[in-house]
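This part of the workshop introduces the protein records we will be handling. Getting from the letters to the tokens is the skill we practise here. The record below serves as our worked example for the rest of this section.

…
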Amino acid sequence: MSIITGLYLLRAALLLPLLAWILLQSGAAMAQSVYRCGSTYSHAPCPQGKPVAVADPRHPAQVQQARAQTARDQDLADRLHRENAEREAARRKVLKQESLQARKNALAQQRALLRQERARKAARKHDTRKVLTGSPAS
């Protein structure tokens, strides 16, 4: 065994108890009491505060199953959100096209009415000239 490998093993042997102690302390921190103080919650006791049980009574397998179900539900929600956004985008595109077509139709109709009005005015003007010049209207 080389010196470097021996140092790594020694370092690991020294760090292992430290890591175990840190994990125990974090577990103890999770097991701390929580108090309800009116409408707020606190880790520190307060006057007339009541302890609240916050431990998860479920078996680890149940917790894992619940997390997996939550992940599936989130995936489904994300997929439905994307599909809905795509449908909305397609609908907006169709509405925009319909709106543009309706404007084009309205402008075409307005132009046709203006042409008809000009033709009527021209016809009246032509008839008026015939009457003024004395030529019979045909």
In short: DSSP finds two helices and three strands in the chain. Residues 60-133 form the longest helix (74 residues). The beta strands are 34-37, 40-42, 50-52. The CA atoms of residues 96 and 102 lie 10 Å apart.
